[in-house]
Amino acid sequence: INMITIFKYLHLFPSAERVCPSGQVFSDCVSSCPPTCSSPRPPASGQCRDECVGGCECPPGLYLHAGQCLRRDDCPCFHRRHSYSAGDAIRQRCNTW
Q1: Fewer CB atoms inside 10 Å of the end CB: C or N, the chain?
Q2: Total structural domains in the chain?
Q3: pTM, rounded to two decimals
């Protein structure tokens, strides 16, 4: 398959490749570094690819986590690469946080 074949396929079937998981939307130019619950801030300049590709992404103001788009307040907390839901307790060196 080459780019011409893909273009012709998408031209003949405009809705092809535009079905997104629930909560996500299709965009002709998605970020290669989308905002996620674990990385909500934009990355430093030069850390993401510059080319523009179509795909699914979370709507503005939502963050990707485990395939779902969440509000920032609904994102889990992260500590030492583990995720914790609101209200979870962390025991560390005989202390509970």
Answers
A1: N
A2: 1
A3: 0.66
